[in-house]
Amino acid sequence: MTGAARTGMREGFVSCEACGLLSRPVGAEEPGDCPRCGEELEFRRRDAIQRTWALVITAAICYLPANILPVMRTTTLTSEQTDTIISGVVRLHASGSWHLALILLIASVMIPLAKLAALAYLLISVQRGSVRNNRERTRLYRVMEGIGHWSMVDVFVATFAVGLVRLRPLLSVAPEPGVLFFSAVVILTIIAAQSFDPRLIWDSSRGKQVTNDG
Amino acid sequence: MAPLSTDVVACPDCDLLQRIPELPPGEAACCPRCGRKLATCKPGSLERTTALAVAAAIAFLITNMEPLMGLSLSGREASTTIAGGVWQMWAQGERITALFVALFAVIAPALQIGFLLAILLSVRRPPAPRWVGRLLRWVVIAGSWSMVEVMLLGILVSLVKIAAIAKVVPGVGIFAAGGLLLLLAAMSASFDPRDAWSRIRWVKGEGPGRALPSSGSDAAESGR
User: Fold this and answer.
1) Who has the most CB within 10 Å: A23, A100, B21, B130?
2) Please, which residues 182-201 of chain A have a Cβ atom closer than 8 Å to chain B?
3) ipTM above 0.85, yes or no
4) How far is A159 from chain B (nearest CA, A)?
5) Is residue B49 part of a domain?
6) pTM metric for this prediction
């Protein structure tokens, strides 16, 4: 590759996000509809940066109640205990299942944080017009998009514990409000990753800088 | 709005224009700039994917009808299905979370399998009608919210957690869910959306054709 990279947008073409067909847009402002599948065409996902920021900030706010509030309550004849996400991990570790505890720690605590941090980094680097590490930043985006749904695991744990353990008054498990905030964090970060447009990472690259990355 | 040859694409991740080369069976074309996989050549994809989707549909039905696990304590017993877990969440006040779980564990995988089966059956005789294109868009959305593998991990973790306080027995549903997980992964891997799109009638009736966007687009790298 020499000189500026030949991208769809620079050469005046638009690629359909639904079916992948490359076509010539009707106009520069309103590219029209895809001739193959009829989906509305866009050069870049609409308002990608603003939308992703809004979702990242909302998810970060929900992250606090998601971790402070309990997600489930276990009641026996003699005792009652509530568990947050973190205390659930600690309890699992204490009962000897350190490998499951590690999986939950990664899925429930570290992945949401890593995803928020990675999306914030991608947004800031795009807004500052960074042209470095484009390939690595694109890879980071793909990884974050791919692992996000694993954070839902704690919500499923709560659901099946609540569904199974209902031997009142001997033993029962009930959900607590933290579970709602926690699912909100997961869903918001998934939508945030989907609203970001990885092509923005490459749009700042002009001229010879592209050859260094490629 | 001139359509171009469908061999010329812009990379969805970095927008680089390139031509997809003729691919030998089993090989994939990747973007030379960002490494995104752009196309694969999967001989027999249609038949294999159809078989896998039918098997996945059966595994899905068993997963949702059979109990996932049972519990016994001091002579009392209980068991749960996926729907039972969702219902208890709903009944105990976490209605939104119950809806999310139903969506990710039941509705999204059901739509993913159902849409794909409809697509696979209707692209057998091209050109397929336009609504198949709509299903092709929806199957991607359904797939992105289908979380069978996460659900299975959640079931296993809750088994271990409850085993600390009561006796639990894994049910048929867990094994069916394991099968469903493998079949869904194989089904998605063997499906070739580029091939399916090429068999669909165009909205604007122009069909593929026309010249490439001027000269010298970079060719995508081919390799496994």
Assistant:
1) A23
2) 183, 187, 190, 194, 198-199, 201
3) yes
4) 5
5) yes
6) 0.89
